[in-house]
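anyone seen this seq b4? input:
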Amino acid sequence: MKIKIAECSGFCFGVKRAISMAKQALEKNKGRPVYSLGHIIHNSQVVEELSREGLKAIKDLDGIKEGVIVVSSHGASPALFEQLKSRGLEVIDATCPFVMSAQKIVKALNEEGYTIIILGDKEHPEVKSLLGFAKDKAIVVKDEKKIKGIEMSSKKIGLISQTTQSSENYNKVISEIMKKGFLEFRVFNTICNDTKKRQDSAARLAKNADTMIIVGGRMSANTKRLFQICSGICKDTYHIETEVELKTDWFTSRELVGIASGASTPDWIIEKAKSKITEISNS
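predicted toks r here
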């Protein structure tokens, strides 16, 4: 049995940057509390590792009166930044630059009077941050089906996507909006480069694989998107967080097993999964 890892795997640029900033904050602030507002990235194992080094993940600012706050790679709303500033907390903004770009677009569209549509998961922290930049006036949809039920009162429409969406899903939403009545429709490609490359490389591998293993956090939007894409190509596609979830019968009479990972999955977790599959194959 052959095992192949997709060309684009491991941490993306934005995740590497956020982790590096968090570690620098811990190093420079020994003796001071350092917090991350939510999980700095959506990978439990990395969050646990950073926790052991001293980074405390918090859900809100209740009871936080001093220390350093690291804003996660998913970003935060302007209102939240103001709240942090008013409390006198030191802020380290680890927002992914691709997310920052989307935030600026949303802010500009709102100021120019556009009806803003965001393709994404309304409960995801990145989308919540984008809504904040739209002053909570944007419409969030998860797919083209949601567009059908929306009455476009405005004649000016602006569309952006959560950075981890698939191009296929985005194109379907664009096509559905084109059926609506409007005078102006502005579309921004806010899907990050890494996401597109990662999805394309995983899809290519899935076409030839007998089994596909997607490695990444259960809360990771881009990992879940990889699973959706690959499972549509290779019926034996499985999503795991770590190698302990692998099952022997997934690899019976298989010639090629493909492995793809979410953008917040470290190389060492991928290698552990590969080693475990090798062990199963040799047993």
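The longest strand covers residues 156-161. The domain at 98-187 is CATH 3.40.1010.20 (Cobalt-precorrin-4 Transmethylase; domain 1). kinda curious what u guys think
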